[in-house]
Design brief:
The chain is built from 8 helices and 10 strands. It is an alpha/beta fold and about 250 residues long. The strands form 2 sheets. Strands 6-7-8-3-9-10 form a 6-stranded mixed beta sheet, with helices on both faces. A 4-stranded antiparallel beta sheet has the order 2-1-4-5, with helices on one face. The longest helix is centred in the last third of the chain and has 18 residues. The chain starts with a strand and ends in a 9-residue tail after the last helix. The mean pLDDT is about 95. The structure holds adenosine-5'-triphosphate and magnesium ion. Adenosine-5'-triphosphate binds next to strand 2 and helix 1. The site of adenosine-5'-triphosphate has 12 residues, from strand 2 and helix 1. This is Nitrate ABC transporter ATP-binding protein.
C-alpha cells in the first residue's frame, strides 16, 4: 500500500517557487530519503506531508485521504528538537500522550520504555539543559515514537550534532527501523547519510524544487558507513549533483 501520494505539488512564497510540480509516492514501510541542496524545498515538502503547511497546487494524500492537518499517526522530528526547558525529559517526551488524554501512570510507563529504546533509560527526571545535543536529539525522536506513529517524518535530525554522535544516531535509527519498519521520510543534504539509510533517494534540484532524480539503493542490510556497495551509490549521487541544473533526467 502507498503511505503518501504526492501529485503535481507546487508551493510558492511570494516570488520564490519552493516546490514546482513535485510528484512522488512513499510506500508503506519504506525508508525514503529526500536529498537536496539548501533551498530546494525539503523542509517545505516535509511540512506539507505533516499537514503543517498547505500546497498552492497539486494533491497530497495519506492512505488515500487528503492531508488537511497534522495527524497523531504521523510523527515529526525536526532539526532542532525544541524541548520545553521547564519540563523534564520525561514530561517533554510524554507531551503528545498528555494531549491524547493518556492517564499519568500509563504515560510514565510508556515514556520510560521509549526512553530506553532510544538509549536514554533513566533520564526521565533530568531537564533538557542537562543533556548533550545528541541526547536531546534522541529525546526528540522518543517524543515522536512514543505515540507509536505509522510514519516518521524527519527533517535533518542530525544536522546539529558532531560527526561521531551522528554516526551513532544513524546506526541506532537503522536498528530501530529494522525492528519496527515504520515508514520513514528523512530529509538531509548529506549524501553519505542518504545512501546509508535509504531504500530510495529522491534528489531535489534547487529553486525551483523539482524531483531531479531517483535512486534505488539496493545494498544489503544491515549496513554500515564505508560499505563498498554504498560507496558506489555515493559516487552515482555525487555525479548527479555535478550535472548542471536543467540537464537532470527523470527516471
Ligand atoms: N515561510 C516562508 N516564507 C518565505 N519563503 C520561504 C518560507 N519557507 C521557505 N521559503 C523559501 O522556500 C525555499 C525552500 O525552503 P526550504 O526551507 O523548504 O528549503 P530546504 O531544502 O529545507 O533548505 P535547507 O537545506 O537550508 O533547510 C527557499 O528559497 C526559502 O527561502
Ligand atoms: Mg530545511
Amino acid at each position: 500500500m502507498t503511505a503518501f501520494q504526492v501529485r503535481g505539488l507546487t508551493r510558492r512564497f511570494r516570488d520564490t517557487v519552493a516546490l514546482d510540480d513535485v510528484s512522488l509516492d512513499v510506500h508503506d514501510g519504506e525508508f525514503l530519503v529526500v536529498l537536496g541542496p539548501s533551498g530546494s524545498g525539503k523542509s517545505t515538502l516535509l511540512e506539507i506531508l505533516a499537514g503543517l503547511q498547505r500546497a498552492d497546487a497539486g494533491e497530497v494524500r495519506y492512505r488515500d485521504r487528503p492531508v488537511d492537518g497534522p495527524r497523531p499517526e504521523i510523527g515529526v522530528v525536526f532539526q532542532d528538537p525544541a524541548l520545553y526547558p521547564w519540563r523534564t525529559v520525561g514530561r517533554n517526551v510524554g507531551i503528545g500522550l498528555e494531549l491524547d488524554g493518556v492517564p499519568a501512570a500509563d504515560r510514565r510507563r510508556r515514556v520510560a520504555a521509549q526512553l530506553a529504546v532510544v538509549g536514554l533509560a533513566g533520564q526521565d527526571e533530568r531537564y533538557p539543559h542537562q543533556l548533550s545535543g545528541g541526547m536531546r536529539q534522541r529525546a526528540g525522536l522518543a517524543r515522536a515514537l512514543v505515540r507509536d506513529p505509522s510514519v516518521l517524518l524527519m527533517d535533518e535530525p542530525y544536522g546539529a550534532v558532531d560527526h561521531i554522535t551522528r554516526v551513532r544516531l544513524q546506526q541506532d535509527l537503522l536498528e530501530l527501523w529494522s525492528r519496527r519498519r515504520t515508514t520513514v521520510v528523512f530529509v538531509t543534504h548529506d549524501v553519505g547519510e542518504a545512501v546509508l539509510l535509504a531504500d530510495r533517494v529522491v534528489l531535489l534540484s534547487a529553486r525551483p524544487g523539482r524531483v531531479a532524480r531517483e535512486f534505488s539503493i539496493d545494498a544489503p542490510r544491515p549496513r554500515a558507513r564505508g560499505d563498498k556497495a554504498l560507496l558506489a551509490y555515493e559516487s552515482e549521487v555525487y555525479a548527479a549533483l555535478r550535472e548542471p541544473a536543467g540537464t537532470h533526467s527523470r527516471q
